[in-house]
Amino acid sequence: MLLIGIPIFTIVLGDAGKVLTLALKLFLTSSPENRKAYSLDDEFNVPLRTGLTFLTMYSLIGTTAFAYIESEWGLFSSFYFVFITTSTVGFGDYFPSNPVVAVMSSLYFLFGLALCSMVLGLIQETVDAPINNLTKKVTFILGMGPEPIDTKRSASESEEHMKGD
């Protein structure tokens, strides 16, 4: 059963991370001020800093909640529990003493794992863009592909570049 369940759970977490990324994109483009700055398309990437901020705040809220609920845990022990469990390691040296809290914490950590998946997806997007750009430039230099499109070039520079050819 574990041989089937773990890969399926990994796929579900990846999809949940994509859904959270889309929800964050919708949230960022919902206000009129941001709608002008951001357009909801494949080119718009959620800033990695935003995802890390959400993950940090989520962890701090969980740390505070567990320090309050589990009276024998301090802030450090609560942070350790939240970090280790959210990073999918979960050593089992700390666990909630109350069964109701254990069930509620499972839901907390399921969402936390999806949030981690979202941040890992944002890291991948952040790293992929420069690597893809470099790959296009190298293939052009080696004569194996078309000229890469420089999106940072202004319209007047593009016209001058075309006239120069």
UniProtKB/TrEMBL annotation:
Keywords: Ion channel, Ion transport, Membrane, Transmembrane, Transmembrane helix, Transport
Classification via InterPro entries: 2pore_dom_K_chnl, K_chnl_dom
GO molecular function terms listed in the Swiss-Prot or TrEMBL record: outward rectifier potassium channel activity; potassium ion leak channel activity
GO biological process, one term: stabilization of membrane potential
Pfam families: Ion_trans_2
Localisation: Membrane
Transmembrane regions: 47-68, 75-95, 101-123
GO cellular component, one term: plasma membrane
PANTHER family membership: POTASSIUM CHANNEL DOMAIN-CONTAINING PROTEIN, POTASSIUM CHANNEL, SUBFAMILY K
Name the UniProt record assigns to this protein: TWiK family of potassium channels protein 18
Organism: Orchesella cincta (Springtail)
